[in-house]
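As a warm-up, study this chain.
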Amino acid sequence: MMAEGSPLFRSRPIEGFLGGPAAFGPVSSTGAEEWLDQAQDDLEVGQLLAREGRFEHAAFLLQQAVEKALKAGLVDRGEDLVRTHDCFVLAETLEAPQGILDAADTVTPYYVRSRYPDATDLELTAEDVDPLVAAAEEVITWTRKTLSNGSKRN
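Now compare it with the structure written out below.
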């Protein structure tokens, strides 16, 4: 989690954040594997953008990778799909272990940061993006291991 005073710092809970935890919908007709495939694609493109110095775009895609991986877990379990971009809420809904909750909490602010130029004047660097890559890799790996069909695809 970000240090207090950071433009992206927030404390829990966030009610109504980007759709909030109360925004539920029916289970997606798209299967868990498709959600996880998109998460993997977002991770890989985010890594490419980070290597090219496109840190804000990389941060957005890495947040999306985590969000889609967690939504794959929800779809896999047949649970209502939480219509939110708050990855912490998604991880909580899945009753994920603390490491996954922490990873989800790390990436969530970058959804807003990269989509809304006036959200903060913080300029991202490779050092900011590296933990997001690690978070996305951790969540995707955890989700892949927890899918009911035992998917081992990359």
